[in-house]
Amino acid sequence: ELAHGHAPFSKYPPMKVLLMTLQNAPPGLDYDRDRKFSKSFKEMVAMCLVKDQTKRPTAEKLLKHSFFKNTKAPQLTVKSILTDLPPLWDRVKALQQKDAAHLASSEQEALSMV
Prior knowledge:
Elements: H1 14-23, H2 39-48, H3 59-63, H4 66-69, H5 74-83, H6 88-113
């Protein structure tokens, strides 16, 4: 989810997602769009997505994986993420405006059906 910004199968209805999750192999990072991710990141994600929890590594073991061992200092990572992030109030305000516009549109659509 964090790599792509949405949950796997998010475009499908919830019941279909449930069935796909149970019947299909776990989603992964092996598509053309995922070339930007490092081999180490892809391996770590694959380890996390093993369906059988007895075969899935513990958090302690994951933290020893090269993806985490070779990361930059947390302060640098947090700073780089937060540098271009708009202030919280601006983000909340934008979401409220978007929700209000969506609600107005839905109300207008409902009125046109009457």
